């Protein structure tokens, strides 16, 4: 008992000591050094706080450090209310988790009670400019019809919040969304409350309208007006009627709650044809605004070859349309038409939305010698008959011809096939997943190895080490034993 009290006391003392030494906020070169204990106090006493999460081993962080100090000194010189702070993420895991930090450096601006993710440049000048912009009003007040029209004309995409009462909860939520969620550099935000302006835009009840000037289109949000809903509205509608698929735009294109995508694979350098097809796509896109996202993939651009391959397409096949649905698994739809017209596209999209058009699964023809060797060759067309044969346990490697890890696996796989060749109830097989797809089997990386046990509808993915011994244990145990310790290295699709 006494021991326990002494023990508790020592813990209490040490906690108290740590507490008192870390509560005071240290500064290094004008930058506050924060930790879990003093973080809340720092936010409480500084209305505007820019916080960098860094790691000592992170090169970009080290490069940023002198610029960060410059910003702190520049702001101090101007008597700015903005303070700079830093947090060593490696010693502050709780703060890292709490603030959703995924990588270093991550910078967040705590502006009163709003948190804004920093997305500006890494030089002192760029950081100062970003801060200045964020300190200004995020939403431009529009007081006349001509102001509003000029505002819309000044950018390809813009938003105006029309609220009868500028101090209503809805209007405040809109301003908060503009500060904390909307990239107002890309999409400037305005607001209007004047009755004459509202009337000229046919606004009868509170509305947020997104204007897309190049498409001469607008999308109206009539509520609910919470920060999350407004953010969702902007994310789901901010794409132009038709976007080009590139490395840079991919994230934005797929960061939407709309999960149907109409993809046009087209040679962009063939201008006449390109423009004509885009016109057909745009008209259809207007009709399905909010239901499907329209994208084109330039087939003349070599880096898109993988994307074409993913759809089983070659440059010569273009122009061609595909539709994908990313709701659960990825489902692909192939039109029955070859003539890309607005009416045909509309019918395809409507059919997919209604569920009257079935997804398309690619398949090569079954090779004549598919079962001549120890490792059986599967394609879409013979997959179910072989792999889903209830009398057999079937282990399938899903590969891509270009995948290095698959090439390395090939001799092992052949050996495995040879070892089980005599066992009639076990089949070792492989399928080229770039040319063949099977309903219910989702391959997201290469190689993927799956077991289809006899007498079962189960599919067991193999995630152990890719060697003969591992595979044999896995097979002999009916898929029950696999060493999952080290995640296997895979190549992304
Ligand atoms: C910030 O806090 C103040 C005071 O509590 C409150 O009036 C204001 O609405 C808050 N702002 C946001 C955007 O939550
Ligand atoms: C509008 O978009 C066009 C085409 O992408 C671009 O060239 C132009 O600079 C944009 N205008 C503004 C004001 O951003
Ligand atoms: C794309 O079109 C251009 C212009 O018509 C042509 O020169 C080029 O060969 C085409 N590229 C492909 C891959 O078809």
UniProtKB/TrEMBL annotation:
One Pfam match: Thioredoxin_6
Family as reported in the entry's similarity comment: Belongs to the protein disulfide isomerase family.
Organism listed in the record: Macrostomum lignano
Keywords annotated in UniProt: Disulfide bond, Endoplasmic reticulum, Isomerase, Redox-active center, Repeat, Signal
Name of the molecule in the record: Protein disulfide-isomerase
Catalytic reaction equation(s): Catalyzes the rearrangement of -S-S- bonds in proteins
Cystine crosslinks: 58-61, 403-406
Localisation: Endoplasmic reticulum lumen
EC id: 5.3.4.1
GO biological process, one term: response to endoplasmic reticulum stress
Enzyme class name: isomerase
Keyword Disulfide bond annotated: yes
Database matches in SUPFAM superfamilies: Thioredoxin-like
GO terms, molecular function: protein disulfide isomerase activity
GO cellular component: endoplasmic reticulum lumen
Domain (Thioredoxin): residue spans on this chain: 13-136, 352-480
First and last residue of the signal peptide: 1-20
Main location class: endoplasmic reticulum
């Amino acid at each position: 008992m006494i021991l326990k009290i002494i023990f508790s006391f020592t813990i209490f003392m040490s906690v108290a000591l740590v507490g008192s030494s870390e509560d005071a906020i240290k500064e290094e070169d004008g930058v506050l050094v924060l930790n879990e204990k003093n973080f809340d106090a720092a936010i409480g006493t500084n209305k505007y706080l820019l916080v960098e999460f860094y790691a000592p081993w992170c090169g970009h962080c080290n490069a940023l450090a002198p610029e960060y100090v410059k910003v702190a000194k520049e702001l101090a010189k101007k008597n700015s209310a903005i303070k700079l702070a830093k947090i060593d993420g490696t010693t502050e895991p709780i703060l890292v988790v709490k603030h959703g930090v995924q990588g270093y450096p991550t910078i967040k601006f705590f502006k009163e009670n709003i948190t804004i993710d920093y997305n500006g440049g890494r030089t002192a000048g760029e950081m100062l400019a970003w801060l200045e912009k964020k300190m200004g009003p995020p939403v431009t007040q529009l007081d006349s019809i001509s102001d509003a029209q000029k505002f819309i004309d000044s950018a390809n995409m813009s938003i105006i919040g029309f609220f009868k009462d500028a101090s209503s909860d809805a209007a405040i939520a809109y301003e908060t969304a503009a500060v904390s969620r909307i990239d107002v550099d890309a999409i400037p935000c305005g607001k209007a409350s004047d009755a004459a302006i509202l009337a000229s835009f046919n606004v009868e009840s509170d509305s947020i309208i997104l204007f897309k000037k190049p498409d001469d289109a607008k999308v109206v949000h009539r509520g609910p007006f919470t920060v999350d809903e407004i953010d969702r509205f902007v994310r789901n509608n901010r794409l132009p009627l038709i976007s080009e698929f590139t490395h840079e735009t991919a994230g934005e294109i797929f960061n939407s709650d709309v999960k149907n995508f109409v993809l046009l694979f087209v040679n962009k350098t063939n201008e006449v044809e390109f423009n004509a097809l885009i016109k057909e796509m745009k008209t259809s896109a207007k009709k399905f605004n909010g239901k499907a996202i329209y994208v084109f993939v330039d087939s003349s651009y070599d880096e898109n070859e993988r994307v074409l391959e993913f759809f089983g397409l070659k440059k010569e096949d273009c122009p061609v349309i595909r539709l994908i649905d990313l709701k659960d698994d990825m489902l692909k739809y192939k039109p029955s038409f070859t003539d890309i017209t607005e009416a045909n596209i509309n019918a395809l999209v409507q059919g997919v939305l209604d569920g009257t058009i079935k997804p398309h699964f690619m398949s090569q023809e079954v090779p004549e010698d598919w079962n001549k060797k120890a490792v059986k060759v599967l394609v879409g067309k013979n997959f179910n008959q072989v792999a889903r044969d209830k009398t057999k346990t079937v282990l399938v490697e899903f590969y891509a011809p270009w995948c290095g890890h698959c090439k390395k696996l090939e001799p092992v796989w052949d050996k495995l096939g040879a070892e089980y060749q005599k066992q009639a109830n076990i089949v070792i097989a492989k399928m080229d997943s770039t040319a063949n797809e099977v309903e219910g089997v989702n391959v997201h990386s290469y190689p993927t190895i799956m077991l289809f046990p006899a007498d079962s509808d189960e599919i067991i993915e193999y995630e152990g080490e890719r060697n003969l011994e591992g595979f044999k244990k896995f097979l002999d145990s009916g898929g029950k034993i696999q060493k999952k310790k080290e995640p296997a290295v895979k190549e992304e699709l």
